[in-house]
Amino acid sequence: MKKDPLLESEIWNSAKAVMSAQPSYLTTKQTKQNIMKSLFKRLAVALSFAAFSGASLNAAEEKNIVETAVSAGSFKTLTAALGAAGLVDTLKGSGPFTVFAPTDEAFAKLPPGTVENLLKPENKAMLTDILKNHVFAGRVTLAKALEVREAASLEGSKITFKFEEGRVIVGGAALVKADIAASNGIIHVIDQVLVPLKTETAPLKASELIELAVHRGVPIFNNGDVAGCAAIYEVTCEALRATGSVPEESRKVLAKALKAARAESSACQRAWILRGAIDTTMASLEAGK
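Below the sequence we write its predicted structure tokens.
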């Protein structure tokens, strides 16, 4: 039987994560049983997704996130929503991004009329927030998600990752498939839409969105993840273009910056181009107060 290096790595990471979490002096029979029980749960997760580490994954790596979702055939609602929110070009960009993708069945679980209402032009900002709540900067594998246990989406909400009753739970959704590789990131499939709490009240103001992006982007950039920072700024620029309170001139600046950034091969330069447009927009908002 041919060895699968991706699966072996996943099993090793799972075993290491479990064993390193246990104090070395615990040697009782019950403790050993608990360790093995936890280990087998983690290995079960790795093994349950082994099918996605073979040829199908290698084929997916040739396509970007949007192309991979379209070719799968089970994300028609998601791809339509990305188009309505103006996020298709962003998720076709270099990223990298990690997307927790709700299936068509997941969107169908929302109250009747919800999807149709979100796709209306006047609800673009709210739709953008919901979609951004499924996107994370960088490549986040299943093993990494379970290791960190919690991370902030590009929308700003904290999403938890945990193993519960034989399943991986992402926020309030169950993980269906994991670690589907794309040329510019990773897709994980979930069975529910992750609606951010803020969306149920009011979307972030443009100035709050900028403050959040800078607050998250600067430390990532300074820690060396310039591509992750650029990804945050790119999504932020798209969201600002969809926000009604942003002046038309600023929207033109944002559009020009997005076009320039997507033509730039250097992640560092992309980050600076987009940050410049964000700063210009913030100055415009403050001047209009």
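The longest strand covers residues 173-182.
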